[in-house]
Amino acid sequence: MNLYENHILPRIIDTICGHRAFAEQRGKILPRATGRVLEVGYGSGTSLPWYDAEKIETLIALDPAEGALQLASKAEAAAPFPVEHLALRGEEIPLDAASVDTVVVAYTLCTIPAVEDALRGMRRVLKPTGRLLFVEHGRSPDPATARWQERVDRIWGAVFGGCTLVRTPPALLEHSGFRLEHREELRIERPPPIPGISLVAWNYLGVAEPV
After folding, report:
1. What is the per-residue pLDDT for 71?
2. DSSP per residue, 55-88
3. What does R_g of the chain's alpha carbons equal in angstroms?
């Protein structure tokens, strides 16, 4: 990874994803995580405050940007459960099959190039009784907004580390061997005051199980 992707971009993402509007969405789903948890696209540890510590045995934090993992060190110092780091991409999960109770993806599926391969890897490491928790932005159901997402998608991706605006997370999950157990869709009404941020205001939240 280059200097921008490893050190500058993680700080930008930390500022945006740490905003209250996005943090509130994490708070709706992440407290359901239990046992041995794998968070793919861990970033700077923005999700840490939203886990129910009494339910977590250990958190495996997977992210390719070592700069992002360094940013997480302060939050991890106060974490009431152990955190293990894997500086790898979402397509690279070096864990045994059926060894994880919960997989978490929070504003992550938008940036993984081979996203369906990555999801199949997440399904592989989940126990048969495990669950995948997701909080993601994606394609808007509003035709006008969706057209703008398509128009600026390439430029947006160049600025934000490959992030794409036009994926539909529930469909990706279903195509990759998951069944949706719970699903919500909503538009964040007060996103941070950043130009163009309304393009990621349509969010998908839910719980999926491997099939």
Report:
1. 80
2. GEEEEEEE-S-HHHHHHTHHHHHT-SS-EEEE--
3. 16
Cα of first residue to Cα of last residue in the chain, in angstroms, is: 34
**What are the structure tokens assigned to 90, written together?**
């979402």
Q: How far apart are CA 203 and CA 114, in angstroms?
A: 21
Q: How many CB atoms lie within 10 A of CB 211?
A: 9
169: left (phi over 0), alpha (psi -120 to 50) or beta: alpha
Q: Which of 194, 189, 78 is nearest to 203 (CA)?
A: 189
Task: Tell me how many degrees the CA angle 48-53-56 measures, rounded to the nearest 5.
Answer: 95
Nearest to 122 by CA among 140, 98, 149: 98
Q: What is the DSSP letter of 7?
A: I
Report d(CA 44, CA 42) in Å as an integer: 6
Question: Which domains, ranges and CATH numbers included, belong to the chain?
Answer: 3-210 (3.40.50.150)
pLDDT (tens digit, 9 = 90+) per residue, 98-139?
Answer: 999 999 999 999 999 999 999 999 999 999 999 999 999 999
Asked if residues 33 and 205 have their Cβ atoms less than 8 Å apart, the reply is no
Residue type, 77: A
Contacts of 77 (CB under 8 A, 6+ apart): none
Q: Does the pTM of the predicted model rise above 0.85?
A: yes
